[in-house]
Design a protein that fits this description.
With 361 residues, the protein is mainly alpha-helical. It contains 14 helices and no strands.
């Protein structure tokens, strides 16, 4: 009997510690880290939603998936509380409470701070105080967690919303380049469209790996998405430095590098495969025919283009290869709305995310 009690105390303590670490890694730790608990909650919710919606239209999927991350976030603290409650039930029984029922009632009373069960025994009273403190701590963490998430979400969506005015819906590099050529002038494109996205990419790299639930938060409008917006900006920048006949601006190159590094860090977190050192001649998902059609559209719109189309295509593909795989992978992961050269590549697939996992190099 004593041996079983010791085992119960050890298992209960391990469960409480593991749950506490899960909460700390998910909410407090300022770097990419994950735990089994948080991953299990998000994966279960995701699979449940996809089981319910099946292969329905994008409009149906979008409405359902808009609830995915919020539901998982609301469930997560409940799971933490339940696990701590289970751990202290084991500890209480192992510490001498006569029955499992008594241990369970004491644990529930403590974690929820109800005070319906009281023990005069010093050991048992201490356990109730510790558990009550942990319960309050978990609730406090969740209260501080949600404003942080929505603050990062708001920063992300500001530029995504502004892109609609400049690149249309869904965002398209052809629309962006054409509108600037006709309305604003190509000399203002870098300042107004490309340069502001370098800090945006740095921000989402930090926020979307530290708080990976943000990856699955959908934009307020169904046709918008952070990942298709990122793809449009990167393609526009790649076209500007390879195809459009304007003076070279180093800020364009820096934004592209910031973009593909940011998307790669997020892809690393989710375990997505990609070539970290691709050759400029490696194949990309954009075909030469698609590029030629875009070149013709830009030419017809009066956008100044370089004369050597073959060289321009090689330069564009050499930039695109750096972010092609991660762009498509993240677009599929979040079930992004249809957009050219990102979420429209190949058949729709919805991989189960390995979210909240420890990033591997």
């Amino acid at each position: 009997m004593i041996a079983l009690q010791v085992v119960a105390v050890v298992l209960g303590a391990a469960l409480v510690v593991a749950t506490g670490l899960s909460a700390i890694k998910t909410v407090v730790l300022p770097r990419a880290a994950g735990t089994i608990v948080t991953r299990a909650v998000f994966v279960l919710v995701r699979r449940t939603i996809y089981a319910a919606i099946g292969r329905r239209s994008f409009a149906v999927r979008d409405r359902a998936l808009a609830y995915y991350a919020p539901i998982a976030l609301i469930l997560l603290p409940g799971v933490w509380v339940a696990l701590v409650m289970g751990g202290f039930t084991l500890i209480g029984w192992g510490a001498g409470m006569t029955t499992w029922r008594e241990a369970y009632l004491t644990s529930g009373s403590s974690i929820l701070t109800l005070g319906t069960v009281f023990h005069r025994d010093l050991t048992h009273a201490t356990l109730t105080y510790v558990e009550a403190t942990l319960g309050l701590g978990l609730v406090s963490l969740q209260i501080s967690y949600l404003p942080t998430i929505y603050g990062a979400f708001s920063r992300r969506e500001q530029l995504v919303g502004m892109l609609e005015v400049r690149a249309g819906v869904p965002p398209s590099p052809v629309v962006a380049l054409t509108r600037f050529s006709r309305i604003r002038g190509m000399d203002r494109l870098v300042d107004e469209l490309i340069a502001p996205w370098e800090p945006w990419f740095a921000d989402i790299e930090e926020s979307h790996t530290t708080l990976p639930a943000l990856v699955f938060f959908r934009s307020p409008l169904p046709e918008r998405s952070w990942i298709t917006a990122a793809g449009c900006v990167l393609d526009t920048a790649a076209l500007l430095t390879s195809t459009v006949a304007v003076p070279h601006d180093a800020r364009v190159d820096v934004t592209i590098r910031a973009g593909f590094q940011s998307l790669r860090r997020i892809a690393d977190y989710f375990g997505m495969p990609y070539d970290a050192a691709p050759e400029p001649t490696d194949p990309v998902s954009v075909t030469r025919d698609e590029y030629d059609a875009l070149y013709d559209d830009l030419d017809a719109a009066g956008v100044p283009l370089v004369a050597d189309r073959d060289r321009a295509w090689a330069d564009f593909a050499g930039w695109r290869v750096n972010y092609d795989a991660v762009l498509l992978g993240l677009a599929a992961l979040v079930d992004a709305p249809p957009a050219p050269w990102s979420s429209d590549r190949g058949p729709l697939h919805r991989p189960t995310p390995r979210i909240f996992r420890r990033r591997r190099r």
